[in-house]
């Protein structure tokens, strides 16, 4: 499935009879038009610049509703805070273990992810989440690495 744009997602929600409050629209637009994967707090701060008077509770409630409706995705990484992804297509993520950046990349072919073992088990895959963990290019250029108990600094 190809990523749905803001206007396509808005039309989908309207056709389902979903009430589209100004808050829902501005949050959906932010997530559909960014490549970032912000936390609820980051959404709150970005939206607060344009939408005076919005509360953090409204942001959380809206993110939960949009996730429930399937127009955005919630990504949890075990650090207690979720990140939100406006890309509703099947795709994978590169997750930097140093700075926390999350980058969208195309998924491998279904045949690579849905292996022969999965098919033999008779499992019907409806969706999957593929993530690669490591250090992003920006962090690796300026990071301190421990190699064989020796620290090397790259600048």
TrEMBL record:
The keyword Transmembrane helix does not apply. It comes from the Bacteria. This is Fur family transcriptional regulator. PANTHER family: FERRIC UPTAKE REGULATION PROTEIN (PTHR33202:SF7), ZINC UPTAKE REGULATION PROTEIN (PTHR33202). Belongs to the Fur family. CDD domains: Fur_like (cd07153). Keywords: DNA-binding, Repressor, Transcription, Transcription regulation, Zinc.
């Amino acid at each position: 499935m190809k990523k749905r744009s803001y206007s396509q997602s808005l039309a989908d929600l309207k056709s389902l009879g979903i009430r589209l409050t100004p808050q829902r629209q501005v949050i959906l637009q932010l997530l559909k038009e960014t490549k970032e994967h912000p936390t609820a707090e980051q959404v709150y701060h970005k939206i607060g610049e344009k939408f005076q008077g919005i509360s953090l509770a409204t942001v959380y409630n809206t993110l939960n509703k949009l996730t429930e409706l399937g127009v955005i995705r919630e990504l949890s990484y075990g650090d207690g805070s979720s990140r939100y992804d406006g890309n509703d297509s099947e795709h994978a993520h590169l997750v930097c273990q140093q700075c926390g950046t999350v980058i969208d990349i195309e998924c491998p072919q279904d045949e690579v992810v849905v292996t022969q073992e999965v098919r033999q088990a008779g499992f019907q895959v409806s969706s999957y989440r593929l993530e690669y963990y490591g250090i992003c290019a920006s962090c690796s250029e300026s990071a301190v690495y421990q190699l064989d108990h020796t620290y090397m600094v790259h600048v």
